[in-house]
Amino acid sequence: MVVRLRLARHGTRNNPFYHIVAIQNSKARNARPIEKLGEYDPVPRPARQTAPPTAYAKLKNAPGYNGDIITSGISSQVQMEKHLEWNEKRILYWLKTGAQPSKPMARLLDRAGLIPPEKRDLYKGLFRQRLTSVDEPVSSNKPDA
């Protein structure tokens, strides 16, 4: 039984939402997984902020009241962020038992630092940077004129 860590797509059209799951390799994308490990929302959405001001905050004696202006604590600039939530202990457990991450999942794990540098060659889909020494001179193919 080959177990994969991969993304199961949920959500609606043009609004994807993924569950991070441990599932048998031969199963369909959205089949029932062995274990749900987390959630990933790749669409940037407004960051979770404080709630709008309550009726109490609108009173003149409430903190935050400055004459005519009532400050609510909500920033005028909305920050957009992607949402990623997972159980790191369970993901490391599945990797230790031999589960292979899919290419997108391997990239997420690599960015989070869950894949050690010595094991980066084991997983497909990771960006492999060419290592060059600082002492090595860079050779050019241009002839001297």
UniProtKB/TrEMBL annotation:
It holds the Pfam family Ribosomal_S16. It comes from the Eukaryota. GO terms for cellular component: mitochondrial small ribosomal subunit. GO terms for biological process: mitochondrial translation. Gene3D superfamilies: 3.30.1320.10. Keywords: Ribonucleoprotein, Ribosomal protein. GO terms for molecular function: structural constituent of ribosome. Belongs to the bacterial ribosomal protein bS16 family. This is Similar to S.cerevisiae protein MRPS16 (Mitochondrial ribosomal protein of the small subunit). It comes from Malassezia sympodialis (strain ATCC 42132). The lineage of its organism: Eukaryota, Fungi, Dikarya, Basidiomycota, Ustilaginomycotina.
